[in-house]
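Support case: user asked for a sample of complex input and structure output to validate their parser. Sending the pair below.
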Amino acid sequence: MQIRHLTLQGYRNLARTELDLPPGLVAISGDNGQGKTNLLEAVYLLAGGVLPGLRLDALIARGGQVAFLAADLLLPDGLSRVEISIAAGRRRLSQDGVPARRYQLSAGGAVWLRPDDLELVYGAPQARRHYLDALLTRLSRRYGQVLSVFERALLQRNAALRAGLDPSLWEPQLSLHGAELIELRRRLVRRMAELLPDVHAELGGRGQLAAQLQETSDPGELARELAARREQDRQRGFTTIGPQRDDLLLSLAGAPAQAFSSRGEARTIALSLRRLEWILLSERYADSPLLLIDELSGELDRSRRDRLLQWISTTPQVVVTDTDLSGIAQACLRLRVDGGRVEVQE
Amino acid sequence: MGTPSSLAQLIRELSRLPGIGPKSAQRLAYYLFGQPEQEVARLAEVLLAAKRDLHDCPRCFGVTDRELCEICSDPQRDAAQICVVEEPGDVLAIERSGEYRGLYHVLRGVISPMRGVGPGSLRIAALLERVVPGVEVILATSTTVEGEATSLYLQQELVPLGARVSRIAYGLPVGGALEYADEVTLGRALAGRQVVS
């Protein structure tokens, strides 16, 4: 996927923007806090990217009521016009003038490398669950749908626990959909476990990188275990087992990466997870995803530099940001973001 | 140019209606403004009259302008079937199908702890009073998370009373192509398939 034209109105801190984007490398520079990351985020969302936990009202410019994003995307079968409008806590998508669901936009999609990817290694389990959920939502239409029904049932059971209402009414739906989420995650993680060691080694990582799920319940036992935990869950005020509590365990040379990896090792692990995302999306949609790299210099230390540059040079379109990108000679277009204004530089 | 305050107020009031966003409210407000005065007065009359004359049917909790609603008081309807729905609008939807000749019971909502709605806030006690052994209760709450949980609660309450309880089938919309069905609907439709030979 590539993005050919971008329109933004009322989006975060960015001024009204119309941009034509060429294939190859697009370099966005600017001081911190000017809106570079917001620009990248807009491209990511338009390319069908999924950001779990994103608050929609945060996307609307301060004092505004509507945010509008649009792009002409180059898909394997030609140009496609996508539009996202956000108002009153709701997001509406359309593709070529027809209302669409999120997953229909995601063919090829985009992969976004960002500084806080270190959270995938050092952060709470939620960061790794979000990684799995976002990737599975883009790989499997069914996963995204089942996940949203599951999350709704989970919110209701938790509210019932806190309000002293009967939590059991929500358990059949939780166990039915939860079991399916667990099975789909297992399938993905098996594939990850096959690919990760090589991906990691190719990015210069040392020691075998392994991934496995740490589950709080077996899918076949979920209904029984939810029932057995009602009293305990009532005291804690939330549902303590199920896929919403599971974790993806990463280990490097047999040791848990969260506790034992150095910062440099963690960077390479996080980059490996993003590379894996890129490979799986390429396979699924027979199309190279758009590659977005926030704060390029953070990724470019000596050990990973050559591999990352090779990844960039073999991707049809790449958008990178940093405070200073004058050293990147390959750029086909240079943009500068200053106080929310996006300007083309000669 | 600012919006005149009475127009802004009209837009605000209209946008409080369910399903009406700010843009639709604005379109409606300008439409009403463009109508002759007697047309607007007639609309206001109809609104007030509806509010004055309509009330809940004391038996099924549908909406009626009679003492007992048209369906509850119709001797031709099959009293051995009670179809349970969430809202009065659902009665109209099922009536339009022309396939159902039994009675209704409108819950006036669904169980939703997130909104502070427990079974006690719904018209469930009145439903249980209507059920006598041999009556079939058809659970036609929607297939949302809340509709399913409400249906489960009703099953638990109704079965001990000796009622026959059924749940409307999950399936594909008629006239819709298979490839456009959402994944969960398709899965349910497969699970609930019917043997033809």
